[in-house]
Write the structure tokens for this entry.
Amino acid sequence: MIHFNKKKYFLPVQKCVIIIYMVCIIKHCFILWNFFSQEDLMNQKYDVISLGEVLLRLSAPVNGRLAQGDTLMKHVGGAELNVASVLGMLGLNSAVVSKVPDNLLASYVRNILREAKVSEEYLVEDTSADSRLGLYYYEYGSYPRKPRVVYDRKNSSINKIEWNDVPSSMFENARLFHTSGITLGLGGNAREFAIQCIREFKKQGALISFDVNYRSNLWTGEEARTCIESILPYVDIFFCSADTARLTFGKTGTTEEIQKSFCKDYPISVVASTERTVLTPKKHNFTSVIYSAKTDSYYREEPYNNLDVVDRIGSGDSYVAGALYGYLKYGDCQKALEYGNAMAAIKHSLIGDMAFTDLAEIDDIISQHQNTSGYQAEMKR
């Protein structure tokens, strides 16, 4: 006859039940915390707040030269503003953080922001006597002549931006904060302010998006690498082409290997890399690759081939905006890829830095791109 020692076996079983019960409680607490954290992010005033310099672009007429003629076309631009404007036109709530002079040029900027549905809440006025809006001049290319850019942005108002220019409540008002290597490359107050913003937005629970957007006229590759690597521990969504990664960060290997290496070195969730083939200044192929560290998956699609390049300026920014839209709207890297590529593609067909469009048009472009066998009408009517 077998004797069952209740005292010997009951207590361990009781302990196991208690442990399992506690694990279940912790698990459900975590689920609830994650749910309410996501709810908090969804309830923010802005989907995206973007920080960067607002620029005025003056362009020679198409096929004209800066060194000739007497006419220049004006457009508002700036990488981070371009991102915010596209997001606004696609239907997300976006705001731009910058500093501009208190004059008629700034009034023109504000008019464009309203048209693009971008909030001016954090657009700071520079009332100093030497305030100025950064300028750049653009000359369109035509084979074999390449496009040319001349910058005149030294001592522009963004370089005077200070921490007390914006309210502390700003950092609690965004699902995602975006900036780029251009803002860091400006140095001085602009760089210091951007780094502080990255840290504070992250502290308040926002996602951090960063586009390397390397410009050799602002800083060297080594300077860029040192500075950008200091903020990568805060970044969730990282935009960097394979060529830029090789040039700036000394990376080697394929695009996919480079993307994964960033996620191994830093707690980055998503890396997006554009791939452009320049056939002539007015004919490009464009696509991208997105890597998700969470699923260890790569996302690709067929390129947009033989794009008619009316104006390529801002196409990378449009890609960033489209990718962020797809990611924020659907939480899906495939959607981020599709919207990013479509936004970049349409931007090539539009004059100016910003891609003035709407969600219906972009959805139609995506549908056409994926329709490889059916009939496609020549005209939208």
